[in-house]
Amino acid sequence: NAKIKASSYLTENEICYDVSNLSPKKNLPWVPDFHDNGKNAYLIIYNCEVNEFFISSGYVDKNRPDLYYKNSRPKKIIITIQNTKKEKEYFLEDTSEPQKIILSEKPGAVGTIKITFPEVYEGTKYKDLCINFLAKKVMIEDATLYDVIKNINE
Hints:
Elements: E1 3-6, E2 10-12, E3 15-17, E4 41-48, E5 52-57, H1 66-70, E6 73-81, E7 86-91, E8 99-102, E9 111-121, E10 131-135
Antiparallel strand pairs: 1-4, 2-3, 4-9, 5-8, 5-10, 6-7, 6-9
């Protein structure tokens, strides 16, 4: 089972923006406690059991759509597969829609990966980088998301 560790997370007004929020079932994002738009914040996923996953960027709240642009979103990510030290850059669109990240053309587990966030789309008001969720599969047809990376934050 995959487990996730973050470089840091923000706690604000007793609200914790930690890695447990990376589940599509949560209504809060993961937010690193970096005051420079989260640049170079990172996530480490141990025992990554898949060769691809989906990332949804930003602070996504159907009751507060303004929070998406007010906060920073990842523009470029660097993923390092730890056992091979192989690095690959990915450029993300500025959208909350899930974007597929292919780690390997070979099906199956890739081991431990590190995701670094060196470039962002800057927020119009806040300097907080927000990641809405990470998931193994996404079903967009009915606007629901499932099969989350299991046991986040254990």
